[in-house]
Fold:
Amino acid sequence: MMTKITTLLFLLLLVGVTITMSEDEEKSEGSSSSSSKLFLMENSKSVVKTNAGEMRLFINNDDKFLDRIMHIGLINMEPRSLFVPQYLDSNMIIFIRRGVAKLGFIYGDELEERRIQTGDIYVIPAGSVFYLVNIGEGQRLHVICSIDPSTSLGHTFQPFYIGGDNQQSILGGFGPTILETAFNESRAKIQRIFKKKQDGPIVFIDDSHSPSLWTKFLQLKKQAKVQKLKTLVQSQDEDEEQKQTSWSWRKLMESVLGKANNIENKDRADSPDSYNLYDRKPDFRNAYGWSSTLDGGDYSPLKIPDIGVFHVNLTAGSMMAPHVNPRASEYSIVLRGYGRVQILFPNGSNAMETEIKVGDIFYIPRYFPFCQIASRNGPLEFIGFTTSSQKNNPQFLAGAASLLKTLLGPELAASFGVSEDTLRHVVDAQHDAVILSSTWAAPGGPGGGRGKKEEDVLHVETKGIEDLVNDVVMDVFE
Ligand SMILES: *[C@@H]1O[C@H](CO)[C@@H](O)[C@H](O)[C@H]1NC(C)=O
Ligand SMILES: *[C@@H]1O[C@H](CO)[C@@H](O)[C@H](O)[C@H]1NC(C)=O
Ligand SMILES: *[C@@H]1O[C@H](CO)[C@@H](O)[C@H](O)[C@H]1NC(C)=O
Structure:
């Protein structure tokens, strides 16, 4: 159901798109380097790095064009390694890019353990204690995660490690007596654990070395693990002035472990299952590729962080028709192949046009028109996260399912300053929808060429932008 305002918005957008397309004809190939990478997330830092694995965080600080910030994290873990129990001050969605893992997490009062594998999505709400073990035989584990810092203390997220050495553990500051009691272990043993210099929060759990606290932890029965995690957390409570941040994480913990005590009568944890993105039937498919979206209606845990997930695969040389997301911003990471992406400002001027390749992360603010194009040499596959768990209704600006087609009539023709026939001719020429074949895709490397021109473009030089906008406004409000 489109209101007049949204109709107006889209009209403005498509006027913008059209104008840019025609202006592009005159412009030379290369766009200015400063703006050409505006929405590529290139700044990353290694937040965890040990022999057993690494977590790299791509940080987004754009509060100019985005209403809601997301960071993207990449985790690599060696075989037989553990990402130690922790909780975050941010909601996190994990996507298993490759490998097999055991995810342990506290849900209600229970410890749940899930085997998750390639293609699986799982939501870890802020404040939930979890750990991740790579159980793939001789296989590295690759995880892509979206981190929604809206509940976080600062701008980026903060992990709270329950274990590790003095430097990193939230337990690090406790005196030996508290730890002795909490762990029911001799002081000597405790000291051996906490004094032992750990590499960091990703550790090997290989039995061949002296068994670490974590190897032992993983060997415990479920209930005993919960008990251990709870004592770890509760012992923290007893020492209130210990850390400046104590109020914040305690508050978080109360919402997880604290409240759990009130619902102890629950028979069984009904914690959600993971959802496999690769098992999902695409929502759209044609000869040029397919796309699949996962919203809160398909997988309700996504409603907690209010985030959606999508997965797109374009065949060689195909393009996603220019479209806008009226409901959400989206973040993409290229999983395979290379291609191009172009993003426009809502006023129609070019915001970013750049080559993309495996591993590139880019985002598209809400209302910004954009399209992705696969190189001619192979398919382009990407997944991503949107800032809404509601059904995302992308509005296509070209193709058989486009807004132009829906709005086609004398008013629209007048707003472009052409006859209805001329407009119809242009709009009807494309018989395919959503994913289109493109003859001018980048041939494969940098500096892809462009060929197809005139027939796809409406020429509007005869009218100024202001006139067009005025016409559109009049049309809509008459
Ligand atoms: C502490 O450990 C001893 C054995 O070392 C055991 O007998 C005792 O029950 C344990 N206490 C608790 C509270 O787990
Ligand atoms: C993407 O499409 C290509 C064919 O264009 C296919 O070979 C590949 O397996 C697809 N990728 C996925 C993840 O389905
Ligand atoms: C369009 O908007 C962008 C971002 O707000 C701005 O930088 C650019 O100058 C605008 N272009 C025109 C033609 O108004």
Observations:
- Residues 90 and 126 are 5 Å apart (CA to CA).
- The radius of gyration is 26 Å.
